[in-house]
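Tokens as discussed.
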């Protein structure tokens, strides 16, 4: 490169070329494949918005669902909408664009909100497991233990914890110098692929990421599995109908936990080396899991289905009058 000539997306600062934007390599470089993916993920994103919105509206309108379990489920739907919105709209736009760039500030914002919502969801799933543990193992004192004030305190704590985690992780990332290359090997900005582009040794940062995100994921996963194990053991003393309902709820929660935390453990519990499976796992993390949550928690939940039918019946009656 000639002296003084700087490629697009870079600027000179203190005798060093700094990156001002990144290039997202995306899921495919084939135009036809990108068009197909655009259609598929457009439908997926609309279903995520519609499914989670229906859950929230149903819970708000049905007073029979104003319980701790559905309060946390409503929070989960909010997080899923936000989580998908951080990455999917940008991915859809890039499918139709020849220049798949994102500004440095946009990349940082994407990383911050991605980890904010992801970490908050991990904590929320852990709290939901505790809620089911109290409801099944200590039903006589359930409403006393999980009262309105406790639920609000837990919700505030998990959002605060997610914020602190995301600030710490993003803060470590943006302090690194980036002077090229600019290609992020994914369809969104995440900490592992971005720090690979830093023009400095990132070994300590990678260890901190593993001890932060990786440890949170593994510990929460172990806590969740142990919690549901205790619940399953305690279900032996329940009547068949109550046991069937509780097993169905626990199975739904475990499905979500496995899909969501499986990605976090796979990506953040190892040094930032790229595997061919990373993008596929990331698709499940950002798009598939937020889509599955409404299906799992609605189609497998009799109370939600009854409340949804009642809400739809009320709206149809109102339109006829």
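Sequence:
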């Amino acid at each position: 490169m000639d002296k003084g000539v700087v490629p697009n997306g870079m600027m000179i600062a203190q005798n060093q070329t700094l990156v001002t934007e990144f290039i997202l390599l995306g899921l495919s470089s084939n135009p036809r494949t990108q068009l197909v993916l655009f259609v598929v993920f457009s439908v997926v994103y609309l279903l995520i918005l519609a499914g989670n919105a229906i859950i929230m509206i149903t819970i708000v309108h049905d007073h029979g669902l104003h319980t701790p379990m559905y309060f946390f489920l409503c929070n989960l739907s909010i997080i899923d909408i936000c989580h998908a919105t951080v990455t999917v709209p940008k991915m859809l736009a890039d499918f139709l664009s020849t220049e798949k760039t994102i500004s440095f500030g946009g990349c940082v914002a994407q990383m911050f909100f991605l980890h904010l919502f992801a970490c908050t969801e991990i904590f929320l799933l852990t709290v939901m497991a505790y809620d089911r543990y109290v409801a099944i193992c200590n039903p006589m004192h359930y409403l006393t233990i999980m009262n309105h004030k406790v639920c609000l305190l837990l919700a505030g704590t998990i959002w605060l914890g997610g914020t602190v985690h995301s600030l710490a992780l993003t803060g470590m990332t943006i302090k690194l110098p980036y002077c090229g290359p600019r290609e992020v090997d994914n369809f969104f900005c995440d900490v592992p692929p971005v720090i690979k582009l830093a023009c400095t040794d990132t070994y300590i940062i990678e260890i901190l990421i593993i001890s932060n995100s990786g440890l949170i994921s593994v510990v929460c996963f172990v806590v969740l599995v142990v919690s549901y194990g205790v619940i399953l053991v305690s279900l032996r003393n329940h009547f068949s109908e109550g046991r069937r309902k509780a097993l169905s709820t626990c199975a739904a929660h475990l499905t979500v936990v496995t899909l969501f935390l499986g990605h976090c453990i796979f990506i953040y519990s190892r040094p930032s080396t790229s595997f061919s499976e990373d993008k596929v796992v990331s698709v499940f993390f950002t798009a598939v899991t937020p889509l599955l949550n409404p299906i799992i928690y609605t189609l497998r939940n009799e109370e939600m289905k009854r409340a949804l039918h009642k809400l739809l019946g009320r709206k149809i009656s109102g339109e006829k009058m």
